[in-house]
């Protein structure tokens, strides 16, 4: 959506007073506040281009040196799928809430079918000994195989791809040392260990007839699955609770793994983990970083980390909105004479609420009125509801515009602009937040010029299911051919 259209909605304030015989107290003040926050959260085209150029430099640093803020993790997933991969493959996805086991039938020609089962992970299981967690994983795989094949007496072992979306250091496609747990996990005797080996031992102990072929991040899986279906896909992004990206890099452009003496004409998928962009020193986004971003950062469980993610991801947009409201309550602008304790609770305002506010179809913004009344026991005036919509739009637009910088940086790094490419995008912001994709496209054009239209985005394929299976098929094929036996 063009920038000018978003800014245009501020004119709604001039029409608000026509709906009432008497203007409400504070109406002019809210109009001024709306203009202030439009400017505060605005990111100019020039700033977008500057941020993108800095982003490119940070990506290169991550490829050149270990332990960089944006780590640019090698995945040992070599090359693109052919699209002709066929056969049955298992996928195990260890998420934050559920464990998912999938049987993926690859049919070739970019087609696949998935049969899956989900198993709930209890809070106790998230903190018991690490080997017990992987024993549980193995038992779930065994139950799934027995339910779909009648028994574990298969003629040949199935290949299993393991989607493990936690920070890991890899030295091979089937090796991954856990750096640290996230998403509420804290299993002892796991960090610093090869989680692929731990799962492999558990599968053997439970006599499950599968061969663990790969351990991957879900973003890497999204890249491969999307390319399997649409070969023009060169980049995959996650825009949801957090943010991340993966793409295929030339081995010759990854100096930090030169000691492995890999063929320089090979390509390898890189898991960027670029939600960490601008962390610690905060020197790349300082021009667009607000006091609300700083507050969220400093009061998080990991201050100064994941700075880029905290400005654009779904976990934080509602909190930015809430902090603005709390400021205006303290200034005596909003909810005069009402109890506001419910909205003063951190992270009580979900980002999904912003989506509802932006898309309220009623003339009186009744959806917004009901939202504040039901969840926070707050009465709202019409002019306040207009202000909420403008504030939501400003925060959501900034998220989309900054999100485009990460995509544009990879496009520039890989010189994809002239030929164009497709970006497979997953996550709730991309799929559910109103106008997010349109705003990203508009911003790509602002950053890259008219050729930015050559960069398309589309809903990504199932990276943790289909992507993991395709990678398992690719890995099996390479090993059968004797390629990289030691990797």
From TrEMBL:
Citing just one GO molecular function, the answer is: mannokinase activity
Q: Name one GO cellular component term.
A: cytosol
Q: Supply the EC number(s).
A: 2.7.1.-
**Per the database record, which ranges form the Hexokinase N-terminal domain?**
34-228
Q: Where does the record place the Hexokinase C-terminal domain?
A: 234-474
Which biological process annotations from GO are given for this protein?
Answer: glucose metabolic process; glycolytic process; intracellular glucose homeostasis; mannose metabolic process
Its UniProt pathway annotation is: Carbohydrate metabolism; hexose metabolism; Carbohydrate degradation; glycolysis; D-glyceraldehyde 3-phosphate and glycerone phosphate from D-glucose: step 1/4
Query: Which reactions appear under catalytic activity for this entry?
Result: a D-hexose + ATP = a D-hexose 6-phosphate + ADP + H(+); D-fructose + ATP = D-fructose 6-phosphate + ADP + H(+)
Pfam short name (any one): Hexokinase_2
Checking InterPro entries in the record gives: ATPase_NBD (IPR043129), Hexokinase (IPR001312), Hexokinase_BS (IPR019807), Hexokinase_C (IPR022673), Hexokinase_N (IPR022672)
- Enumerate the UniProt keywords alphabetically: ATP-binding, Glycolysis, Kinase, Nucleotide-binding, Transferase
Gene3D superfamilies, A to Z? 3.30.420.40, 3.40.367.20
The family this protein is said to belong to: Belongs to the hexokinase family.
Task: Please give the name of this protein.
Answer: Phosphotransferase
Query: Which organism does this sequence originate in?
Result: Malassezia brasiliensis
Gene label: hxk1
């Amino acid at each position: 959506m063009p920038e000018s259209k978003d800014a245009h909605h501020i004119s709604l304030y001039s029409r608000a007073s026509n709906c009432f015989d008497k203007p409400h107290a504070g109406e002019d003040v809210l109009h001024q506040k709306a203009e202030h926050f439009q400017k505060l959260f605005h990111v100019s085209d020039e700033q977008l281009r500057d941020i993108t150029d800095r982003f490119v430099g940070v990506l290169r640093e991550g490829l050149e040196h270990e332990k960089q803020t944006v780590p640019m993790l090698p995945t040992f997933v070599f090359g693109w799928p052919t699209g002709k991969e066929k056969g049955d493959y298992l996928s195990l996805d260890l998420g934050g809430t559920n464990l998912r086991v999938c049987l993926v039938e690859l049919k070739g020609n970019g087609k696949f079918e998935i049969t899956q089962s989900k198993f709930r992970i209890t809070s106790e299981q998230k903190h018991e000994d690490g080997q017990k967690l992987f024993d549980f994983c193995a038992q779930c795989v065994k139950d799934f195989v027995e339910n779909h094949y009648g028994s574990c007496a298969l003629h040949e072992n199935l290949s299993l791809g393991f989607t493990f979306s936690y920070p890991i250091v890899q030295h091979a496609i089937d090796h991954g040392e856990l750096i640290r747990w996230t998403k509420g996990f804290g299993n002892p005797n796991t960090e610093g260990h090869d989680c692929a080996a731990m799962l492999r031992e558990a599968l053997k102990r439970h006599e499950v007839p599968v061969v663990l072929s790969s351990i991957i991040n879900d973003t890497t899986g999204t890249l491969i699955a999307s390319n399997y279906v649409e070969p023009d896909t060169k980049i995959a992004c996650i825009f949801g609770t957090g943010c991340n990206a993966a793409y295929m890099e030339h081995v010759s452009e990854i100096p930090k793994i030169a000691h492995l003496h890999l063929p320089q004409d090979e390509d390898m998928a890189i898991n960027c983990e670029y939600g960490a962009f601008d962390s610690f020193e905060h020197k790349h986004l300082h021009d667009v970083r607000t006091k609300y971003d700083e507050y969220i950062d400093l009061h998080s469980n990991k201050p100064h980390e994941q700075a880029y993610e905290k400005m654009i991801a779904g976990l934080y947009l509602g909190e930015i909105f809430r902090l603005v409201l709390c400021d205006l309550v303290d200034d005596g602008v909003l909810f005069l004479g009402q109890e506001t304790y419910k909205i003063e609770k951190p992270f009580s305002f979900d980002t999904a609420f912003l989506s509802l506010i932006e898309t309220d179809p009623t003339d009186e913004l009744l959806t917004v009125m009901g939202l504040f009344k039901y969840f926070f026991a707050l009465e709202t005036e019409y002019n306040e509801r207009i202000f909420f919509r403008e504030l939501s739009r400003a925060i959501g637009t900034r998220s989309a515009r900054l999100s485009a910088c990460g995509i544009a940086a990879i496009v520039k790094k890989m010189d994809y602009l002239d030929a164009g490419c497709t970006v497979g995008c997953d996550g709730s912001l991309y799929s559910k937040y109103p106008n997010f994709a349109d705003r990203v496209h508009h911003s790509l054009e602002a950053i890259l010029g008219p050729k930015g239209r050559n960069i398309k985005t589309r809903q990504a394929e199932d990276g943790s299911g289909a992507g993991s299976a395709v990678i398992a098929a690719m890995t099996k094929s390479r090993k059968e051919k004797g390629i990289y036996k030691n990797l």
